[in-house]
Amino acid sequence: MVAIVSASLTQFGKRRESLFDLAKESSLPILRSFRDDIDFVVVSNSYSGEFNGVSGLNNLVTTYLSLDYVPSIRVDNTSGSGGSSVLVAKSLLDSGIARSVLVIGVEKMSTLKTRDVTSVISSLLPPRERSVGISVPSLASLMAKIYMEKYGAKREAIAQVAVKNHRNGAKNPYAHIRKEVSLDDVLSSTVVADPLTQFEFCPISDGSASILMVRDQDALSFTSKPVYIKGVAMGSDSSHITDRENLLEMRSVRIAGEKARRMSGVTRFDFAELHDMATILEIVEGEALGLLREGEGWKYYMEGETDIDGEIPINTSGGLNSKGHPIGASGVAQLVESFLQVRGEAGDRQVKNARVGLSLSMAGFGNSATVTIVGDEP
Amino acid sequence: MVAIVSASLTQFGKRRESLFDLAKESSLPILRSFRDDIDFVVVSNSYSGEFNGVSGLNNLVTTYLSLDYVPSIRVDNTSGSGGSSVLVAKSLLDSGIARSVLVIGVEKMSTLKTRDVTSVISSLLPPRERSVGISVPSLASLMAKIYMEKYGAKREAIAQVAVKNHRNGAKNPYAHIRKEVSLDDVLSSTVVADPLTQFEFCPISDGSASILMVRDQDALSFTSKPVYIKGVAMGSDSSHITDRENLLEMRSVRIAGEKARRMSGVTRFDFAELHDMATILEIVEGEALGLLREGEGWKYYMEGETDIDGEIPINTSGGLNSKGHPIGASGVAQLVESFLQVRGEAGDRQVKNARVGLSLSMAGFGNSATVTIVGDEP
Predict the structure, then answer these.
(1) Hey, do A2-112+206-228 and A125-199+231-375 end up sharing a CATH topology, with the first three levels equal?
(2) Nearest partner of B160 among B334, B359, B307, judged by Cα
(3) What is the pLDDT of residue A69?
(4) Measured CA distances, A257 to A262, B64, B155 (Å)
(5) Which keywords annotate this record (chains A, B) (predicted)?
(6) Which of B68, B118, B327 has the most A C-beta neighbours within 10 Å, making it the best mutation to test the interface with A?
(7) Where residue A27 falls among pLDDT bands split at 50, 70, 90?
(8) Which pLDDT does position A135 carry in this prediction?
(9) Residue A196 backbone class (left: φ over 0; alpha: ψ -120 to 50; beta: rest)
(10) CATH number of A2-112+206-228
(11) Which residues have a Cβ under 8 Å from the Cβ of A116 and sit 6 or more positions away?
(12) Whole-number pLDDT of residue B202
């Protein structure tokens, strides 16, 4: 297997810097120590063409970082690009093509107005569904209604996801939104897709995150505290979301979780980073991954069991909801948080005795999902 | 190592069909035989956002092909996406993440006018070089001048690349341009970038190519005539082309070739598919790869030694020059040609006793290069 030996990220938010400068900012701390050890670069990015008028991003980034002679590719899987890039990096290491891979997740979205960003993101929907006005927020709205009706879940429990994630984000110096919100704030803010409100969706952010991955047998020559990738797997589901029999099932998430668990042999987790593009998704994903009991996930939020000091802390980083969601960077940033947690370096967000964690990087509305399981032992 | 067990491509050219229908057309012959065996899809594509207003292409394609539950990613490396995708597919197989990978290369460029296509492609140049008006054709022009001066090469020899490639393309039912041209036609056609003329650059094409890759130990259960990938490697160079000491060196190509040769143990080749975006590139690449003697590559063309029945046949498919260059599809299409040649199924273009071949998939102006070596034995 493989290990993460260094990790870094930029402040997320509305940034003045270019796409290139963001990539540089997140990777520079890694390059300072390990520049000469890097022999492959995977750039996780989806929309450099649409948002920044740039193509061939991977080669431009390696040149910008003075890594001209290091082979590189761009891996795209929309919001799930980060997890997919980790999967590819692991494969390159396993196959012997590379002995170390720098994964740089980066996206700069604030170049466009909100309406135009939404239009770009909607281009991932199948033409058929796009033409009838389906959007990712409208699907989240539908999911929330079905979930509440099926399980008798309380509206407050869903809003509580945002309260918890904003609280965590306020403790994360790299988060986009560093302000706590109350349950009342969430419930009374502007409705985006009934019943979900503004605070329950991730903001539009710029940002970058980088990790250095090596083969596990080499890890200790890079750092005395490697974080090992114990399992990584991908699942897929139809892009025709209206064709899915059960919107709550999240097949791609479940399959990716099952495969990654089998690969790792891990059965219980000290923390998890999930894809909370909308609050309801965090709950349904937690259930699909077996972190929360099916149909009862919402209760964990009422009882504080997903808080940093709870039974299963979720999104200690603030999640997409508060940390922000620069598309190509998000999945990599989840691994940065996992790296910090396992090494005991997460500051105010530190989970006690965090040894094993899970992260879920998801594309579309569960069109694709990658689960990565990390721990302090190989 | 790994093997190609099935391969297919669409007619290249200006096509009415959508991006999705092109992907379907090239992969359908493979799906008909092996649908249930496919457990990963790599989509090689660079510009679905810019040309087609589509993101999340890999998931949309798997849904379109009724492969909803098959994990997928998009791999981008501009013109070199195809080679990069083959490298990633090999890694996924080596690492055990997949037991079979369908690589679909696809691009639909004719949605935009020529001027807009050129503008999109130019977005791969570093902002610094883009701003002073450098373009890929202008670099080819410079390369041709330097080459002619340094080696005393004849202008006719460079033009002869186009004559030979059009002759080969005329024999390829899938080629965009199926019309022979004479040396005089080439020399007297419109000058695009002095001294190079219109016939010496690839056209703007739509098209798709697909290959199915499996581990070599599984190959014979798919076909009695697998084509084995004996080596695949990537090299890189600066995107700041004006920083390169010697424009003729093509460092990325040389390094990729050396690494792939070492991996494969192969020293001589029966045919090669090169990245002839401009005629001069085919000659300089052939030298960088050791297929043609340095400084004497042009002479091979004067003497017909790169013809189908020559000493080292190059671009039997017609190459980018005549077959066309749908960005994400080109590198995969090279492997389709190699597959046909090694299996003895290349029809009028068949090289006698073709057992081992090389293909070069290149990004930018040698910013990145992937060399794949195939043969009839593992």
Answers:
(1) yes
(2) B307
(3) 97
(4) 9, 25, 61
(5) Isoprene biosynthesis, Transferase
(6) B68
(7) very high
(8) 85
(9) beta
(10) 3.40.47.10
(11) none
(12) 97
Are A124 and B240 within 8 A, CB to CB?
Answer: no
Angle at A105 between CA A102 and CA A110, to 5 degrees: 150
* Cβ distance of B240 and A72 shorter than 8 Å: no
Cβ-defined contact of A121 to B69 (cutoff 8 Å): no
pLDDT recorded at residue A213:
98
State how far the Cα of A226 lies from the Cα of A224, in Å rounded to an integer.
Answer: 6
> Tell me: the pLDDT tens digits for A111-132?
999 999 999 999 999 988 888 8
Q: pLDDT > 70: what percent of chain A?
A: 100
- Taking contacts as CB-CB distances below 8 angstroms, the residues of chain B near A363 are 56, 59
Taking the C-alpha atoms of residue B182 and residue B87, their distance in angstroms, rounded to an integer, is 37
Q: Compute the distance between CA of residue B337 and CA of residue A129 in angstroms, rounded to an integer.
A: 37
Q: What mean pLDDT is reported for chain B?
A: 97
Contact between B47 and A47 using a beta-carbon 8 Å cutoff: no
CATH architecture of A125-199+231-375: 3-Layer(aba) Sandwich (3.40)
Residue A305 burial by Cβ neighbours in a 10 Å radius (0-12, 13-18, 19+):
middle
| Alpha helices, H only, chain A | 19-34, 48-52, 57-64, 81-94, 114-122, 127-131, 136-151, 155-170, 183-188, 251-264, 279-288, 297-302, 319-323, 327-343
Contacts of A59 in chain B (CB under 8 A): 77-78, 124, 236, 239, 363-364, 367-368
C-alpha span between A265 and A262 (Å, rounded):
5
Instruction: Decide if B95 and A94 are in contact by the 8 Å CB cutoff.
Output: yes
Instruction: Establish how many alpha carbons lie within 13 A of residue A12's alpha carbon, considering only the half-sphere containing its beta carbon.
Output: 37
- Find, among B75, B138, B72, the residue nearest to B107 by Cα: B75
CB B101 within 8 A of CB B93: yes
d(CA B317, CA B286): 16
**Do residue B95 and residue A97 have CB atoms under 8 angstroms apart?**
no
pLDDT value at A56 more than 90: yes
Contact residues, chain A, for B75 at CB < 8 Å: 73-76, 88
Whether A161 has a pLDDT exceeding 90, the answer reads yes
Asked if residue B242 has pLDDT above 90, the reply is: no
Average pLDDT over residues A56-84: 98
Which residue is associated with the tokens 């292409």?
B57
**For the packed helices A327-343 and A81-94, what is the interaxial angle rounded to 10 degrees?**
70
For residue B94, the chain A residues in CB contact (below 8 A) are 91, 94-96
Supply the pLDDT for residue B273.
98
Q: Do A59 and B78 touch (CB under 8 A)?
A: yes
Other beta carbons within 10 angstroms of residue B62's beta carbon come to: 28
Name the residue facing B59 among A74, A233, A367 (closest C-beta). Answer: A367
Output phi, psi for A18, to 5 deg: -75, 165
Q: How confident is the model at residue A133, as a pLDDT?
A: 81
> Model ipTM?
0.98
pLDDT of B135 over the 90 cut: no
Q: Where are the domains of chain B?
A: 2-112+206-228, 125-199+231-375
Rounded to 10°, the helix A155-170/A136-151 angle is 120
Distance in Å, alpha carbon of B239 to nearest chain A alpha carbon: 6
Instruction: Give B56's contacts in chain A (Cβ within 8 Å).
Output: 46, 77-78, 123-125, 239, 363-364, 367
Cβ atoms of B52 and B111 within 8 Å: the answer is yes
Whether pLDDT at A284 is above 90: yes
pLDDT surpassing 90 at residue B130: no
At residue B127 the predicted structure's pLDDT band, cuts being 50, 70 and 90, is confident
Q: Cβ(B276)–Cβ(B319) under 8 Å?
A: yes
